[in-house]
Amino acid sequence: MMRNGSDDLARLVEFDRVHRSVYTDDAIFEREMETIFQRAWLYVGHQSQVPKPGDYCTALVGRQPLIMVRHSDGEVYVLYNRCAHRGAMLCANSRGNTGATFGCSYHSWQYRTDGTLESIPLPGGYEGTRLKPGATDYNLRRAARVDSYRGFVFASLTSSGPSLIEFLGEARIAFDNMCDRAPAGELQIVPTCFRFIQHSNWKIFMENQLDALHPYVTHESSGRAAIEVERQLAARKQQPPLEYHYLSAFITPFHEWDKLQTVNYPHGHCLLQGYMGLRPQDPDTLAYEAVMREHYGAEGAERILGVNIHHVLLYPGLSVQPALQQLRAVRPLAPDRTLTEIWHFRLKGAPEAIYRRALAYYNLINSPSTMVNADDLENFWRCHQGLASDGGDWVSFHRSAGQDDDRDGVITSRRGTSEAPMRNQFRAWKQYLSGEQ
Amino acid sequence: MATVAKRAARARQAPRRRKAPAPARRQFAKNADGILREVEQFLYRQAELLDSKRWSDYIALFADDGRYWMPASPEQTSGDGVPSIFYEDRNLMTMRMKRVTHPHAWSQAPAWGTSHLVSNVTLEAADSRTGDLIVRSRFHMMEFRRDASRHFAGTYRHELRKTKDGYRIKLQRVDMVNGEAPFDFVLQAWV
């Protein structure tokens, strides 16, 4: 289906529609893995997952099994999870503390936590071979590039390309706003990761994240159920918990969603703002805002708390909700199989009640018993089934095409339900696959 | 079933080995078999309500302040303030019921069903004054949805309150042995 020429790309991705094969074709998936997931900055983890020397956690980055580890000098290293001797995986657990070295379970080659080879049992026996003492080719391989932004660690598996800060660009507000919401300016990750396998292409998930047209339809049942329980409680003169609003807000009618705005940046990043009333006036919020003013001053606190961003998408593999302290990492496994990992954070220095709010969102919306994502996953599956069929060739992204404001490559949608975020993702997709990015 | 019978037999024999059982203990011991039978029936009924999707009858098994809790990891000792797979009071359970029964709960469209087996029932504690119990059991649930089967298995721990209408659940803790695996699709109803 797909060769390397840009003619093919031009035929597959048009301005306002894309060919179904970009979701289902094995060769295109292979090419995505090489040109996008082997090149882009991908999320590895948060520094607070490895606070002490020897602490490590593992991550699947692109197709590569990596280890993120804290070395004795305090640096965080990202290493391939593979012994240089015979190739055995070093860390079989997803997290732990390895002490001063990683030891291989097969022949006990030992590596320091910066990846350098420390020792081999029976050092005699290598005389006259190419395995010389002190040779660096038998260290653990490091990810080609590693950098972090405000505690979020990223790796790129290619040595060339934009720096992390250039890559993130304006979309780094995802991390700035989440960190700034902490009076101490820092986050602490909660070490629980909920994981899901989606039986659909990774792009279907990414496209859904800023899709303001879908909640009213997809999540109608959840929204109605939440409103009914809110009403029952109100009838009993009880105050419904704030988190019920996270669910009832899903059935905000279409015309209200249209009032929101999406902003679309280079590299495929995009954000959705102005939704969900994320700044309530309950006593917990007011107490938190007072703490924020103490730390940042009245103006500074207002600048941070006034940011109403619901979702930031960092293409190709991250979905961040700064005001709700949640993060989802997307790990494509096959054209029709996608692993998502969901994390949430504590704001250092914020009252416990603010953590409880993020936790309620995590439990209700993002846990394996989610009352919301069940219907998303159902629709993702249905989309993938339909796209794999011969019932049609195109996926329509026509809504508001050509009507959004484009200023120096930053596209602002005039309506919240514009399909600008999907078009913007495919703008980057095409650049990656044609080697322009 | 053999295991339950053996355990019941053990529970019957246990007090004979004690030289001077306390009066309250003897009272419990004398009724242990009966209590166990009663509690087993309670657990079977709960499983049956789930498998037959009688959601509101299921919720009614919980005390007004009762909770259903599935921890995110086995080390957790309370669901308060920590991530959980489920941590629901009756309001949230009602919301879940209303969601799955809504005609536009799209993920409910493919027919699905479950079959629960509950076994290895033991009494962890009994309050001889109130009749309240803590009961441990093991479950195995097979789910069929859209041509695919899933299995979940693990431990139930029921904190039961004795009322004039029978037992009510104060807290049901559900630890799934495969609860930390990546979920292939999600859990839409209680396990």
Provide a descriptive summary of the structure in words.
With about 425 residues, chain A is an alpha+beta fold. Chain A folds into two domains: about 40-150, Rieske [2Fe-2S] iron-sulphur domain (Rieske Iron-sulfur Protein), CATH 2.102.10.10; about 170-435, Naphthalene 1,2-dioxygenase Alpha Subunit, Chain A, domain 1. Chain A has 14 helices and 22 strands. In chain A, the strands form five sheets. In chain A, strands 12, 13, 14, 15, 16, 17, 18, 19, 21 and 22 form a ten-stranded antiparallel beta sheet that branches. In chain A, strand 16 (about 310-315) and strand 17 (about 320) form a beta hairpin. By secondary structure, chain B is an alpha+beta fold. Chain B has a single domain (about 1-175), classed as Nuclear Transport Factor 2, Chain: A (Roll). A six-stranded mixed beta sheet of chain B has the order 2-1-6-5-4-3. In chain B, helix 1 (about 1-15) packs antiparallel against helix 2 (about 25-50). The radius of gyration of chain B is 18 Å and the shape is globular. Mean pLDDT of chain B is about 90; it is low at about 10-25.
Residue-averaged pLDDT of chain B, rounded? 88
Poorly predicted runs of chain B are: 11-26
Secondary-structure element sequence of chain B?
Answer: HHHEEHEEEEE
Query: Roughly how many Å is the radius of gyration of chain A?
Result: 23 Å
**Count the strands of chain A?**
22
Predict the CATH topology of the largest domain in chain A.
Naphthalene 1,2-dioxygenase Alpha Subunit, Chain A, domain 1
Rounded mean pLDDT of chain A is 94
The biggest sheet of chain A, with number of strands, parallel, antiparallel or mixed sense and barrel status, is: 10 strands, antiparallel
Helix content of chain A: 25-40%
Write down the domain tally of chain A.
2
Q: Count interface residues per chain for the largest interface.
A: A-B, 40 and 36 residues
Q: How many distinct helices of chain A?
A: 14
The stretches of 5 or more residues of chain A where confidence is low (pLDDT under 50) are: none
Number of contiguous helices of chain B: 4
**Mind summarizing the main beta sheet of chain B?**
6 strands, mixed
CATH topology of chain B: Nuclear Transport Factor 2, Chain: A
* Subunit organisation of the chains: heterodimer
Categorize the overall geometry of chain A. Answer: globular
